[in-house]
Design the sequence.
């Protein structure tokens, strides 16, 4: 005879709280009290309130009061979301403007070790790893709580964005807008800007890697390329200034692009030599990972073919133009994009992986630039 247990699983959840309209402290107290007496919820800890400036959204907003609370619940993630929305509605939360002023804002940041992405809910919260106004109160009450994607504790995530000279890498395939968005982030943050010194080893790369036909083996060419990417990022020469460094590349993209290129045989010797080069560089503290769809890539390749003499926008697509057809180029780029996403967001093998990765849709380049700037402004 098998006895069935009626005991439900209890999940630990980290909730972010904020308000910047009206009686902020009173509204936060009311929201937390509603959580405290909600059936199915046990309120474990509440942080102190922290006043912060608004990040993103319309200009001229008043400052926020932010806090975090740790709860235990038998609710499923979507039920926790619905509960938080009910509290917000009770306290007359307005949703007319994205990142606009609000009487109360409650976000489900972490739900145990759950990794979930639906139209209604994404956990862990997709932007929490670069938001100081989230991490500081969270670290006060749950410093050892693990982020289920980065596999870092809240304390480690806060420490990661508290480095004196941050390395922010804007990462995407050619045509995603990485150079353009890196320019925007560097302009706003007054950061040192480093562009990729040469094209990635996608199809047609060998012909672009030198003006003449190279006598070097592909592996040797790859290592020379890797060293070019590494030289500005060496730990031994890393600056100490407060404004940081913004790059439009991640050195690991070379390895992923080479693995994705059927014309290149990446052997164990290359892997070992590449690892030796990569380990001497400063791993990005923050990666802004750009996603672009097939239609947008097609349009940008066509634009580049006609505007090459008048504009340097999407100049990183020069390598793609050596391919026989645009369809072939697009397929190659989308495959590489999937490799980048898998590598950066995998919960396995976190060694030398960035701790904070923010995904951005870059089909609308202007909006992506604003989102990128907001993500980095949230660090301060």
Sequence:
């Amino acid at each position: 005879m098998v006895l069935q247990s009626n005991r439900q699983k209890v999940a630990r959840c980290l909730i972010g709280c904020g308000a910047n309209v009206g009686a902020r402290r009173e509204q936060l107290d009311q929201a937390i009290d509603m959580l405290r007496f909600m059936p199915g919820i046990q309120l474990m800890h509440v942080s102190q309130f922290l006043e912060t400036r608004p990040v993103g959204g319309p200009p001229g907003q008043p400052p926020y009061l932010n806090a975090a609370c740790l709860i235990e619940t038998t609710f499923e993630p979507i039920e926790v979301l619905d509960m938080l929305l009910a509290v917000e509605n009770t306290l007359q939360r307005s949703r007319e403007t994205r990142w606009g002023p609000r009487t109360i804002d409650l976000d489900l940041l972490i739900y145990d070790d759950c990794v979930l992405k639906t139209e209604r809910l994404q956990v862990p919260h997709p932007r929490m790893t670069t938001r100081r106004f989230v991490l500081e109160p969270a670290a006060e009450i749950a410093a050892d709580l693990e982020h289920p994607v980065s596999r870092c504790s809240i304390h480690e995530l806060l420490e990661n964005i508290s480095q004196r000279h941050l390395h922010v890498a804007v990462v995407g395939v050619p045509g995603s807008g990485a150079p353009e968005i890196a320019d925007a982030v560097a302009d706003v943050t007054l950061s040192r800007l480093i562009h990729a010194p040469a094209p990635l080893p996608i199809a047609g790369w060998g012909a672009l890697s030198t003006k003449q036909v190279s006598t070097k083996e592909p592996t040797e060419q790859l290592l020379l390329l890797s060293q070019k990417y590494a030289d500005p990022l060496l730990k031994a020469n890393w600056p100490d200034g407060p404004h940081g460094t913004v790059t439009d590349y991640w050195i690991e993209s070379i390895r992923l692009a080479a693995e994705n290129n059927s014309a290149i045989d990446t052997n164990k010797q290359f892997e070992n030599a590449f690892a030796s080069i990569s380990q001497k560089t400063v791993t990005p503290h923050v990666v802004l990972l750009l996603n672009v769809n097939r239609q947008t890539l097609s349009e940008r390749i066509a634009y580049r073919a006609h505007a090459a003499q008048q504009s340097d926008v999407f100049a990183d697509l020069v390598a793609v133009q050596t391919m026989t057809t645009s369809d072939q180029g697009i397929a190659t780029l989308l495959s590489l994009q999937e490799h980048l996403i898998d590598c950066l967001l995998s919960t396995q093998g976190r060694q030398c992986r960035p701790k904070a990765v923010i995904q951005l849709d870059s089909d609308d380049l202007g909006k992506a630039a604003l989102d990128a700037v907001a993500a980095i402004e949230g660090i301060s």
User: Anything to note?
Assistant: Residues 9 and 74 are 6 Å apart (CA to CA). The first helix runs from residue 24 to 36. The longest strand covers residues 64-73. The domain at 11-160 is CATH 3.30.70.560 (Alpha-Beta Plaits).
